[in-house]
Amino acid sequence: TNRFNVNGVMVSGDHFIHGTRVASAETFETRSPMDWDTVLGNVARGNEETAQLAIESATTAFSQWSGLSAKERAVYLHRLADLIEEHKEQIANVECSDMAMLFESLNLRLVPRGAANFRNYADLAVEHEERVWSSKGTLNRVIRTPAGPAVIITPWNAPFMLSTWKCAPALAAGNTVILKPAEWSPLSASVLADLIEKAEFPKGVFNIVQGLGSEVGNALVNDPRVKRISFTGSVPTARIIGKAAAENIVPFTAELGGKSCLLVFADADIDAAAKKAAGQFDDSGQVCMAGTRIIVEQSIKDEFLALFNKYADQHVMGDSRDSKTTMSAMIHPVHVDRVEGFVNRARENGDTILRGGKRFIEGKLWFEPTLIAPKSNQSEVVQSEIFGPVLTFQTFDTEEQGVELANSTVFGLSGILYTGNKERAERVGRLIRGGTIWVNTFLVRDLTAPFGGIGLSGLGREGGHYALEFHSDLKTLQILEG
Ligand code: ADP
Description:
By secondary structure, this protein is α/β, with parallel strands linked by helices. 39% of the residues lie in helices and 23% in strands.
């Protein structure tokens, strides 16, 4: 079989279908962003035939998996969570090479979160109580039934965490899964497949298909045997998937991009706000929830900028395996070109580059922490998602103006607000458009809370029972009493 060494871990480049590794005649190369000249390995490039095989597998396995009780399924999910915890370092080693995510973030935060996702959904599905009541002489019962095979399509940033976040509710709800990882970071999902095998899930319950979105992804979402589609990625792809879902009348969720605000009032802890603002450069800005538009009350502008620069200067660009590194290489040369293009156009358009603005080392994939004061709110760097270490800086005089600026894009994924006034926190927090608004903090997550976007940031909510509901068909069972 096609296995290669990634940071000391032997990773399979094949698909995982019906409990076995399946190769494809064609492959694509995967490389580490830190060392672009070296090929990590060749990954199976799935096609329509691969998609058919995986859907067949998931369809066959569905009758058995959906027939188990939530409690029986929970045993598998907890066993998988145990295995993720046991193999934490291996997973972190693979992803810190394949995606260049920081080893420490993976080891301390993102991989444990992957295990927590499975535990959380295993327990939530068991705790769920059916609604039962009497009316009009009948006993009514709302039953949540598994929907069928679910296709789950994930993006290249935070691939391990996101695939567990999206697969766990599907499996807990009784659906079988076909996971399609992004072609720019396909490897941690393959490690997950090894653990699924170790956890002895029934064959076909969990399948992984590798390949390009336009090829294998397209074939997956168009198949009428697929009953749910859960997608995280870009708006253009969401439109394609939405059309496929509409054709088959299948529910889908889409978690898309963001251009979230980081709104700072003069009554805030300015040091804490500036530190968090500079923290938006973490992961080289490849974070959908990042507060990329810094919007600060005019009266604290200079003080804020001085503190922001102090913290931004503390970033260390380096190897993702090094614990001193805070900003690693970006995912792909094509992506760095895109980010550089945004900055170059901003310069040409008369926006002011306040810091950074270029690659850290010519020809490599690190980009300097960059702050831009736009000429106007309509500047491209303010209105478009850049997905790199590029933030914009704007000011406001009144609360109303601040909120107006915060809400002035087509996106609405999240928002960050800094204020020392509790009433303002509530008031402005309710006014900012977005699925998640953090006040005086960022990224703290309760897994039972809903997560998703407004506007072009997406459709539907994941998290907690919201995702279980999405993956189920609700049935009302009515029995004549007496
Ligand atoms: P990003 O900008 O994050 O790369 P994409 O939407 O291009 O966003 O990719 C997100 C995921 O969607 C990836 O796994 C990709 O392979 C997949 N994808 C891309 N195009 C399609 C498509 N036409 N059908 C299904 N999946 C697709």
